[in-house]
Amino acid sequence: MRPDLLDLLACPVCGGDGSLELTAGEIAEDGDVVTGTLACPSCGVAYPIERSVPRFVAPADDYCGNFGFQWQAWRTLQVDRLSGHKLSEQRLIADSRWPRAWFAGKTILDAGCGAGRFADVAAGLGARVVGVDISAAIDACRETTAIHGGGPGGRVDCIQASLFELPLKPGIFDAVYCMGVIQHTPDPVALMRNLPKFLKPGGRLAYNFYEEGLWRRLQVIKYALRLITPFLSVDANLALSKALVAVFYPLTRRLASIRKVRILNHFIPIASVHDSQLTPDQQHAWTLLDTFDWYGARFEKRQHHDRVAALLKDVGLKEVESAPGLCWAISPASQSDDASAPSR
Ligand SMILES: C[S@@+](CC[C@H](N)C(=O)[O-])C[C@H]1O[C@@H](n2cnc3c(N)ncnc32)[C@H](O)[C@@H]1O
Ligand SMILES: [Zn+2]
């Protein structure tokens, strides 16, 4: 943990003003705190720092063992810098609608950072990023982003915490993005209402989520299998995903090359990826990763983008816009703008 992170942390029990006190154990040469404790002087609660990451999640509260495994097993595949493509940068810019040049100097929350594919891009564009994840994915993110510095001037901080109980002060981020996470939580609405309070006045919010609608209804086999797969072990889901990919991948590959026919891939129970920026081996690995992601996730709760937009307006956000699977908004610039906000 970079000691600078202390300025942003708050006791998740006491809330906003409950600063935490750091007792460092092992400190790396660059100043990174490898082991130590964060304690709240008000309520006395203490959290460990292990392997350079402050840990606010009790093992029993981590419902994302699948993601912990997934992002360690395929840590580098979606990271542009490590795998020779630009898919993560393209997706971050397209889904956030923030221009590349805007990132420099901003402080940004990556809510549910996984292996750090977007944190790595944002830091590369000059932002300071705080990546938060509930699962062991945070260790993958830390490894991915260590290149951005562990001491003073470092650009990425990694925290293992739940987005429902963030150990962060409110009103500190220029932007918050949450990509591919909302549907995988037990209470998407509560999550979407909680994150905006961490924005500075005028800060930007971008959500990407699974849209409710036609595609879900076409994926009959996937959802039949998902009646049981969220309750299977990681090993069983991996074996199932490998078997499905072995059977269906050659077919999806052939269909993907035929323009009007490739839509049929939506009926097939694997998450096939055939992007030409990827090598054939990467396409196969990405398909297995996304298929495992489909079946292993404990929760998959889709949203309708109109309802997401209504919810963000209800918490007082401005300039709310949405499209299928996406929603953007801006935090009110001043308290008076926020007068209509019922519950922030
Ligand atoms: C599909 S992955 C997406 C990761 C990353 N945003 C990306 O797009 O590559 C979903 C991530 O959300 C995390 N997650 C799920 N529920 C969470 C929660 N309540 N708090 C923090 N992270 C959570 C999981 O551990 C997982 O790493
Ligand atoms: Zn406290």
Name a few traits of the molecule.
binds zinc ion, disordered C terminus, 31% helix, binds S-adenosylmethionine, 344 residues, 11 helices, four-stranded antiparallel sheet, single chain, alpha/beta, 2 domains, seven-stranded mixed sheet, Rossmann fold
Plain-language structure description:
Helices cover 31% and strands 17% of the residues. The two termini are 29 Å apart. It has two domains: 194 residues, Vaccinia Virus protein VP39 (Rossmann fold), CATH 3.40.50.150; 79 residues, no CATH class. The chain is built from eleven helices and eleven strands. The protein has 344 residues and is α/β, with parallel strands linked by helices. The strands form two sheets. The protein has a seven-stranded mixed beta sheet, with helices on both faces. Bound molecules: S-adenosylmethionine and zinc ion. S-adenosylmethionine binds next to helix 1 and strand 6.
What fraction, in percent, of the residue positions are helical?
25-40%
Q: Which strands sit side by side, in order, in the main sheet?
A: 7-6-5-8-9-11-10
As an assembly, this protein is single chain
Name of the top-level CATH class of the largest domain: Alpha Beta
Number of domains: 2
How is the topology of this model organized?
Layout (H helix, E strand, L loop, with lengths): L20 E4 L11 E4 L6 E5 L2 E2 L10 H9 L6 H4 L3 H10 L10 E5 L5 H8 L3 E6 L3 H9 L10 E5 L12 E7 L8 H7 L4 E10 L5 H5 L1 H6 L8 H23 L23 H17 L8 H10 L3 E6 L2 E5 L14
Parallel strand pairs: 5-6, 5-8, 6-7, 8-9
Antiparallel strand pairs: 1-2, 2-3, 3-4, 9-11, 10-11
The protein binds S-adenosylmethionine and zinc ion.
